[in-house]
Structure formats: C-alpha cells, structure tokens
Amino acid sequence: MNYGIKVSKKDYDVKTTALANLVFTSEKNLFKIAQKGTWQIALSYSTYYDYYLDPEGTLFHKWSGETTIIHNLGYVPSFEIWGQEPREISDNYFKWTYEMYTWWGAPMAKYIIADSIKLIIGYFEATRDDLYEYTDSPNRTTINGIYSIYKDPML
Amino acid sequence: MAYGIKVSQTGHDVKTCDDKDLVFSSDWNTYKIKQEVLLNVVVGTPYTYNHNLGYIPFVWAFYRTESGEWAPDGFNTDFESFNISVNSTSILINIDGDDTGEKRSVKLFLMEKII
C-alpha cells in the first residue's frame, strides 16, 4: 500500500489529476526555509601594489568588502541571494551570482561561497593607476541585500 | 505537547528522519507564489512590471530565447541578454541584443513575504 498526501487545486480531483494541478504532494520535495534575512556589505577603499607585471610594483585602487552569514547546518545548503549592485545607479536588487573578471587593468569579483557552517558574500574591484585616471568610487559603498538559506542540502 | 505536520520523503521514517529528508514540515516555512505573470517584452525596450507588494520579493524570472528555449535571468551572451532587478513596488526587465523590436515571452514568479 502506498502512503502520502496530495492536495489539488480547486476544481481538480486530487485522486486523478496531473501533477501540475497539485498544490502539494508528498512525492515532490519543497524548499524549506532554514534561515532568511538581510545582509549588508560596507565597501572600504585601499590601495595595493601588484608585482606581476613590474618588479617595482603597479599601484591599484581597490574597493572591497565581505560579509559572513552563519547557518551551522552541518552540510552545504541550497540558497538564494539578491542584492544591490555597487556600480548601478538604481537602488534595485539584482540576483547575485558568482562573477570574476581577472583582466589585469581592472579586476573585479562578486562572490558567494557556501560551506557546512556559513555563507560568505563578497565584492572586490580594483583599478590600475597608471592605466586609468582614477576618479570614481562606486555609486554606493554600502550594499544591501536579502537571502534565503534552505534546509535542503546541495548534495 | 508539540503540534504540527511532517511529511517525509519516500523511504524515510517521518518520526525519526533528519529534517533534510522531509518533503514538508510545519517547522520550516516554504515560499508561496504570490504573483505569477506572463509578459511580452520588446527587445531593446526596458519594461517595468508594477507588483505593488510593498516589499522586495524573491523572484524567479525566465524568458523565451530567440531559439524557443527558456532561460533564467542573468542570461548574457554575445547576442542577447535578459536581466531583471526588483524593488518594493516594481520589477525592471531588460532584454537587449541584436533583435531590437522583437518580442520575447517573460515569466515571473513572485514569492510571498516570509516574516
């Protein structure tokens, strides 16, 4: 004998209707929210010298910041991250994905890393001083975002 | 006494299994779909969808590419891109590419606010 629960949409017979007409079925998993909330990164300015191209070093202007969200689930969970973009004019939130551009004149990285304890969200951008006239900071140095961490593991 | 409902995945005992092996538990909330929208968006013309929810919702967004397949937002190729951004009142949809003026189908799922 089979066990389980099904809930159909209004006007559909739960015993015969197709999967698309079910609101819930125990045969299909749901993303269960383990933790949700907001996050914020305060970008800070600094400079550094890169010695890869020039033994005397090449000056870079850097904006970077990082935040850590602890979940302590004991396994790597599935998750979703949205947040503002430092170089965008609008205050809108965008889906945050992993981006890394290593071009030596203006490297940039937006990263999200998850392990069994935490989620790290970070941003990095740099501008080579002798290649560009460095005048502009990001449109915002405080980045706001939202996140959901699901009970459902990555593997 | 504790109250609630748990539904386990096939092959797991609902009374003893780990939370991750549950299909559903009243201990853990799930996102409900607040709005489901199908739109026609013109390539090269930003489109604003007003959801008027009063909060910034999680959004699952997909669009139908020129070749007829569906792709999620964050779609960026040499020929076409599909990106969205969201605030507490609206969603801005941008499809840019070579086929300016053509229409693309866009599907949005906006999630209920979880408090």
Short structural summary:
With 155 residues, chain A is an all-beta fold. Chain A has strands at 6-8, 22-25, 33-42, 44-50, 58-70, 77-83, 94-95, 99-101, 108-114, 118-128, 142-153. In chain A, 0% of the residues lie in helices and 51% in strands.
The largest beta-sheet of chain A arranges its strands as 4-5-10-9-8
Report the total helices of chain A.
Answer: 0
- Approximate strand percentage of chain B: over 45%
Which CATH architecture of the largest domain in chain B is right?
Answer: Sandwich
Q: For the terminal residues of chain B, how far apart are their CA atoms?
A: 25 Å
Verbal overview:
The complex is a heterodimer of chains A (155) and B (115). Chain A is built from no helices and eleven strands. Chain A is mostly beta strands and 155 residues long. In chain A, strands 4-5-10-9-8 form a five-stranded antiparallel β-sheet, with no helix packed on it. Chain A has a four-stranded antiparallel β-sheet with strand order 3-11-6-7, with no helix packed on it. In chain A, strands 1-2 form a two-stranded antiparallel ribbon. In chain A, a hairpin with a 3-residue loop joins strand 9 and strand 10. Chain B has 115 residues and is mostly beta strands. Chain B has two domains: 1-30, no CATH class; 33-111, Immunoglobulin-like, CATH 2.60.40.10. Helices cover 0% and strands 49% of the residues of chain B. Chain B contains no helices and ten strands. Chain B has a four-stranded antiparallel β-sheet with strand order 3-10-5-6, with no helix packed on it. Chain B has a four-stranded antiparallel β-sheet with strand order 4-9-8-7, with no helix packed on it. A two-stranded antiparallel ribbon of chain B has the order 1-2. In chain B, a hairpin with a 5-residue loop joins strand 5 (59-64) and strand 6 (70-72). Chain B is elongated. The chains are: A mainly beta (155), B mainly beta (115). The interface between A and B is medium-sized, with 29 and 26 residues.
